[in-house]
Amino acid sequence: MSTREETPLDQPTFDRVLAEELAKGTSQRVAEGRARSAAVRAYRKEHGEPERAAKPAAEREHAAAPAGAATAATPAAPAAAAAPVAAGVPAPTVAAPSAAVRTAPPPTGAVPSPKPGAPDKHRLLALVAPEGIQRVEREQGDRINTWPHLMIEEFISLLVMSAGLIIFSTFVNAPLRELANPNLTPNPSKAPWYFLGLQELLRYFHAMVAGVLIPTFILVGLAAVPYIDRNPSTKPGDRKLAITLFTMLMMFGAILTMIGAFFRGPGFNWVWPWGDGIFFEL
To answer: Rounded to an integer, what distance in angstroms lies between the CA atom of residue 109 and that of residue 101?
Structure first.
């Protein structure tokens, strides 16, 4: 059997194709393979298909005959091969095809690098488990079922608050005053604590502005927030603007309430609680 190096090829075709492939940026090994294939086709096109060398008789009989008959058929091969010589007929000679033997250059030990101008090629092979592709992991959210988890927690909170109010009212009397007397107006006359912020606004703005326009603007703005802010995220880090605006609104109302409760005295004038006292009742 002929080896790869013994295969006849057309040397000019080999050199030409090899130079063309190397000029394209093909690697040395791939370029030599393509050049050898083209040279073999060119040689066979010009000289025809080469005759296959006949196998020795021993190999033919060993491949065709059973194992038991191989020993008996093997000695007959030398006699058959020598018969033409005994009859005076010269044995035909098979001319070996001329093949150019090329030797690979010795290794240089340098790291292979692509030719200038040639694109870099990266070949990666990775094994990925099927479940890693098909399974979709969902993020753990902060959601719970309304029943029974949320309702149980709210019911327990209701019981704790009710018990606290009952215990507090047992030891502390409710701050109830005498019946209202239209001829005796208390000074200062303050609204309940949840309206002290609006009462404080009346000291700075007109009654229409402080009592109508500003509360209406706040209520309408709170109702329009879900339609203006369309951010679906529930994480505080993604809602910085909304959290900042709501914090400013709450601080604005809390500061006005504290001023009206502790810093307003008779005539709803400004007083210092540590000097003039606290004019505030629950």
So the answer is: 24
Encoding tokens for residue 228? 């203006």
Domain of residue 201: give its range: 187-282
The reply to whether 54 falls in a domain is yes
Q: Is residue 170 part of a domain?
A: no
Chosen domain end from 12, 30, 63: 63
Q: State the residue for tokens 């063309």.
A: 20
Number of Cβ atoms within 10 Å of the Cβ of 133: 8
pLDDT in tens, the chain (282 residues): 444 556 778 888 888 888 888 888 888 888 888 888 888 888 888 877 665 555 555 555 555 444 444 444 444 444 444 444 444 445 555 555 555 677 777 777 776 676 777 776 666 666 666 555 555 556 666 677 888 888 999 999 999 999 999 999 999 888 777 888 888 888 888 988 899 999 999 999 999 999 999 999 999 999 998 888 888 888 888 888 889 999 999 999 999 999 999 999 998 999 999 988 888 876
Q: How many domains does the chain have?
A: 2
